[in-house]
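Recall the central idea of this unit: under ordinary conditions, the amino acid sequence of a chain determines the structure it adopts. In this exercise we apply that idea directly, starting from the sequence alone.
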Amino acid sequence: MFQSDIGFDAPEWLTAEHMTGTTIMAVEFADGVVFGADSRTSTGTYVANRVTDKLTQVSDKIYCCRSGSAADTQAIADYVKFYLDLQENETNEEPTVEVASRIFQLFCYNNRDMLSASIICAGWDKIKGGQVFCLPLGGMCVRMPFAIGGSGSTYIYGHCDNTYKEGMSEAECLKFVSEAVAIAMHRDGSSGGMIRLAVLT
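Accordingly, the structure predicted from this sequence is:
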């Protein structure tokens, strides 16, 4: 516990770091990507915000899903957005999803001892279409057909492996994501609120 300025031990919910203890998810389909996330932000055992938006735009057609420390992931997303805007202004071309994910990796890996950040970077570009890159704690970067993250993801690995199939349509992907996030929210105390869904084509 931390001593407050008025001389007594402050409760955990007053001093704990804001965490997006969460469920995040993205899946590729033929024409783009479907994103999904819950909306709960917790501070220890206290729910600090029940309508958080964990889907962050970093470029016109590239978004990231954030889990871990809210402050860390917001700062990283802001840096990546800055560098992608800079690249787009210099080259007059939209950045690719892989470039965005590698910039995320650069920040997450080089600062892995100081950050608590797990990110899913996904989007669409004219070279490779819809893509999903998973960046778990530590800064590894891997392209996957679908990615899940956050504390709620531990409850749905089996469900996702059993339910996912290649070549799903947009509607099937939306159903896949919404069901998986709903199951995680039901089981995980740090996930909750509402399900935010987004389709990027």
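Helices lie at 12-15, 70-91, 97-110, 157-163, 170-187.
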